[in-house]
Amino acid sequence: MLGHEVHVLIPDLGEPQLDQPQGPGRVVVHASFPGPFGWLVRRSNRKHSKRQGKSAGPPFDQSGSTVTLNWRGAVVDAAKRLASFVLFPDVRAEWTPWARRRLRWILAEIVPHVVISSHEPATTLLLGMYARNQGFTWLADLGDPVRTAYTPRRWRRHALKFEALVCRRADRILVTNGATRDLLVERHGQEPDRFLVLPNGYDDRRTRHIMEEMSSVTFDEQRLELIYAGRLYDYRNPAPLLQAVAGCPGVRLTLIVPDPPPATELAAIAAHAGSGLRVLGALPHVQVQQLLERADILVNFGDRAQPVRTPAKLYEYFGVKRPILHVHSSGADAAVALLHGLRRGWICLDDENALRGLLADLCTRKQEGVLYQGMMLSPLPGYAHSSLGLKLEACIRDVVGSRQQASSRA
Q: Which long-range contacts (CB under 8 A, 24 or more apart) does 330-335 make?
């Protein structure tokens, strides 16, 4: 968008490449061998792509059935778990030697002005540190701290030391919110001005198409239609909301999830909710965006394990003209502070009774035609990718300029 040439280094997992931004400049993707386990994933993804090309599969069933691995899959899964005991932060670190080899070539041939490593996994930070050791400007993009509540116990001490090293060595540290910056400043005694708060955002330049296949997903004007799009990680707690939906016949929740709900409890609640729950599988991004725009309310779940983290999905919602229902577990939830005062929707504790009461009230408001009364639903321009890109560009120019001045004085 701003005329810069961007080179992206990724493991080759056989997945389709993302659309490249239109306009001046260009994006060049370098995909390197992902490692032995990643090679197995690549084979699986490419076989899946061929099958999908022949026929599109139906949405996931709501019955709560789980995927059963054959004996080969079980052996590979066990081997991956074993490898995670010796590879930091997990088996994805197997990519490091091949990634470093490819990075070495990029640094020599392209000679970039700046290297940005996007965490996680932490193996990308190792690559960024390698570039820094070669004399390149390095920005460490810490979407999450390296040492988190979900870091395996065996890696916690190592993760904390590595996190401190990253904060010392990087020319600038990028974080998604002020709470994460404050946490890292307190942990490692760094100056706050070494951090740039750069939140996630929404794509304000994507062309929206009307696709015929969307007609199969309908919404009921007589119901309060809720929608959640994303993964149901263990640190998100959808159970209270599902229980509340089960007790409100005028409400339906649509889950757009890449994988079926994994928990037995979740499957049981889904069966009880009946027609109040609709579970869809992975969909193209443009279709997901259209569904978000057609629902009444967008659902976001807070992070129970690490409240300082703000889910990226929330920022994506800021580009959709719909209110947000944020379900949280902690008063320290950074998303609560972010949403407070925006008049963007509702914030509710993940308590079944509290959620059921709120949903009943919202159903009444919809029936009376005042669901959005008093809301500010325009896209928030400060979270648009174009705006965030300008902020990042200014940071890069400042860091690169400072290093060049220091080098010339030396």
A: 330/302, 330/304, 332/307, 332/308, 333/302, 333/303, 333/307, 334/177, 334/178, 334/179, 334/180, 334/307, 334/308, 334/309, 334/310, 335/300, 335/302, 335/310, 335/311
* One domain for residues 117 and 243: no
Are 250 and 53 contacting, i.e. CB atoms less than 8 angstroms apart? no
Q: Pick from 42, 61, 121, 400: which is nearest to 260 by CA? A: 61
pLDDT by residue (tens digit) across 167-181? Answer: 999 999 999 888 899
* 267, 360: one domain: yes
What length is written for the chain? 410
Widest distance between CA atoms in the chain: 72
Same domain flag for 374 and 395: no
Q: Show Cβ contacts of residue 69 under 8 Å, excluding neighbours closer than 6 positions.
A: 77
Element (H, E) at 132: helix 123-133
Q: At what angle do helices 71-83 and 36-54 cross, to 10 degrees?
A: 140
Residue 297 phi, psi dihedral angles, 5° rounding: -140, 140
Residue 92: enclosing H or E segment and its boundaries? none
Tokens in use for 38? 């990643």
Angle at 195 between CA 184 and CA 190, to 5 degrees: 50
The beta strands (E) that lie in 52-110 are given as none
| Domain enclosing residue 186, as ranges | 5-44+71-201+385-409
Per-chain mean pLDDT for the chain: 83
> What does DSSP say about strands 137-142 and 324-328: parallel, antiparallel, or unpaired?
unpaired
Q: Are residues 90 and 236 in the same domain?
A: no
pLDDT class for 210, splitting at 50, 70, 90?
very low
248: left (phi over 0), alpha (psi -120 to 50) or beta: beta
Detail the DSSP E strand segments found in 33-78: none
Contacts with 328 (C-beta within 8 Å, 6 or more apart), sequence order? 301, 302, 307, 335, 336, 347, 348, 349, 350
pLDDT value for 36 = 85
The tokens for 108 are 């020599």
- Mean pLDDT lowest among 184-198, 258-272, 309-323: 258-272
CATH of the domain at 139: 3.40.50.2000
Q: How far apart are the C-alpha atoms of 215 and 237, rounded to whole Å?
A: 30
**Judgement on whether residues 262 and 304 belong to the same structural domain of the protein:** yes
What's the pLDDT band for 397 if we cut at 50, 70, 90?
very high
Residue 17 main-chain phi, psi, to 5 deg:
-75, 145
CB atoms within 10 A of CB 369: 8
